[in-house]
Amino acid sequence: MNFIGLMVLTLIEVVAVGFHLPDERIFIFSNYTLMILTVVAIPKFIMIALIFMHLYGEEDSGILTVTALFPSFFIIIMILFIGLTHPEATTGLPAWCRPGTY
Amino acid sequence: MSVHDDHHPSAWGPHDWSHGAPHNSWSPFIMSVGIGIFLFSVAGVYRWGEMIDAGSIALVFAGLAIVMFGLAVFWRQDMSFDGSYEPKATGTPFRGIDIRKVSVWIFLMSEMMVFTSLFSTYMRYRFGIESCESVFESGQWVEGTSVTCFEPAGHLIASSWFHIAPGAINTFALIVSSFTVVQALRYAKKVDLDHKVRTKLVTRYLGATTVLAILFLTLKMIEWFIGFPLPEFLAEYNHGDTTIKSLYAEGYLINADSYQHHYYDTAYLADHGHGISHDTELYAMMESGTHSGGQMMANIRVSASTFYVTTGTHGVHVLGGIIGLMYMTFKASRGGYTPENAVSIEYFGLYWHFVDLIWVIVFPFFYLY
């Protein structure tokens, strides 16, 4: 069941890109395609982690889920405070980090 | 000293498993040293495709030889496993859980940090650098002078169903391979199954996983370097061209400081009926005669680097999985898996599902968007 679900969700991703959806901003997403890709990736991620990787339904699932979530704190810092420091991300970068400087 | 310690364990193997779990192994240390030498020396061999230090090649092979030796030690220890003992953690908070399982999870979390740093780098540059498409449409470029902009690989890959095909097939291949690993574990764990039948089924499913993993890397090589031909009747859906070019042939390279593509060529767009959107500044500038049009040239080193480094790191993980799978399939074909030691497949499965998990993020955001 999980396997079929993953296949269907992947199909949705491919079709969403193949059919060139409107290029308009929606919620926090810059276009419809990005929104669909993000929304579909989340359940795929959860389905693989919970079912395939046994983070649900087993005796040791609880503590292993906590272990798996441990890096989340660092991931949030990286994504929110380093990855999305725009606008002007490139001009705000130190000179050695700007494109064209190697 | 417990009774399990009284068996003179060898760090070189094979272990005397009937006296308990192994207490030590040189294998991880040897492989770490080998990988360290390999990475240190391989970085000095090439620069932009040119060999800069032939002497490092000897070190590259020395590193690989040390890794192989470490693997041999590991195999020698593992092949002697009769499945009679699985060490449990004794400390909080993992008390009672298999030590190897906890180790795999901690390893996977360190891997998660590696990929997170790659994703965050990608996001910073993707959102921080203006896309080549908007630079082109803004008209803020002059033919013959390179502009720095972000050209996502997805712009090329998602340009047609044919370009998406290798990545899409790979996505399905990885999901199916996750399923086949689960099946291999399921049959290896089945107590009420004849050993010969179990051996056949586990070998079959692990073998299928190996084939799918090899397919994944093969398609990736086709997508990056080779491209593929199209039948004549499909050419009309590909601008009359009977070949799907590789990213390499498209000039999407980490050293591309003068990248040119027909997407950014006003003459090509006009000839092929696409034209330029009338809403763009470029159109207004061309209409008023302040821009002569032409083909934009771009420095896309940053975008190509983030793409190749991230997808390449994922590919290396698939390659590592293939090495593990080949060994496991060999072991399975010799009847090496029983319900007692089937957890080894589960632990490999955790790694393999993680590789799939990373692809779930890489595919949409690097290939499609």
What does this molecule look like?
The complex is a heterodimer of chains A (102) and B (369). Chain A folds into two domains: 2-60; 71-102, no CATH class. Helices cover 62% and strands 0% of the residues of chain A. Chain A has helices at residues 2-18, 32-52, 61-69, 72-83, 89-92. The longest helix of chain A has 21 residues, at 32-52. In chain A, 19% of the residues are buried. Chain B is mainly alpha-helical and 369 residues long. Chain B has helices at residues 27-42, 55-78, 99-128, 132-138, 153-157, 161-189, 195-226, 266-271, 281-288, 301-333, 343-368, and strands spanning 46-47, 50-51, 146-148, 228-229, 243-244, 297-299. In chain B, the strands form three sheets. Chain B has a two-stranded antiparallel sheet with strand order 1-2. A two-stranded parallel sheet of chain B has the order 3-6. Chain B starts with 26 loop residues before the first helix and ends with a helix. In chain B, 34% of the residues are buried. The model of chain B is unreliable at 1-7 (pLDDT under 50). The chains are: A mainly alpha (102), B mainly alpha (369).
**How many helices of chain A?**
5
- Strand coverage percent of chain B: under 5%
Helix content of chain B: 55-70%
Number of strands of chain B: 6
Protein topology:
The complex is a heterodimer of chains A (102) and B (369).
Chain A: H1 2-18, H2 32-52, H3 61-69, H4 72-83, H5 89-92
Chain B: H1 27-42, E1 46-47, E2 50-51, H2 55-78, H3 99-128, H4 132-138, E3 146-148, H5 153-157, H6 161-189, H7 195-226, E4 228-229, E5 243-244, H8 266-271, H9 281-288, E6 297-299, H10 301-333, H11 343-368
Parallel strand pairs in B: 3-6
Antiparallel strand pairs in B: 1-2, 4-5
Helix pairs in contact in B: 1-2, 3-10, 3-11, 6-7, 6-11, 7-10, 10-11
Short description:
Chain A has 102 residues and is mainly α. Chain A is built from 5 helices and no strands.
Can you give keywords for this protein?
heterodimer; A: 102 residues; mainly alpha; 2 domains; flat; B: 369 residues; two-stranded antiparallel sheet; two-stranded parallel ribbon; 11 helices; 6 strands; 59% helix; elongated; disordered N terminus
